[in-house]
Amino acid sequence: MNTRQSLAHDYAESLTSLAQPLAALILSMEQDERVSAECLDAQFEYLSAIQHEQDRAAWAVTGPGMTAREVQTSRAYLFDLSEVAEGELFALYGTAA
């Protein structure tokens, strides 16, 4: 495994550890009647984006790998979505997630 493939592998693993608790949160939120559709949509969008980026990174492990810039761009994209998702949680619960 070359350096770019190792970087992609590590990034894919970090996204797995990010997606699992978010998926659990979404499952619990679906049972809460106070949760708005907008809030759930934001969480689903964030989780879907994480899973998409995770798939891209996993593919890159078996192929060309990822550059540090590609990882940075992916992280920035996910950060923007996390801000929206967290804003919805803040509006719902009144505290930062």
Automatic annotation (TrEMBL):
This is Uncharacterized protein. The lineage of its organism: Bacteria, Pseudomonadati, Pseudomonadota, Gammaproteobacteria, Pseudomonadales. It comes from the Bacteria. It comes from Pseudomonas fluorescens.
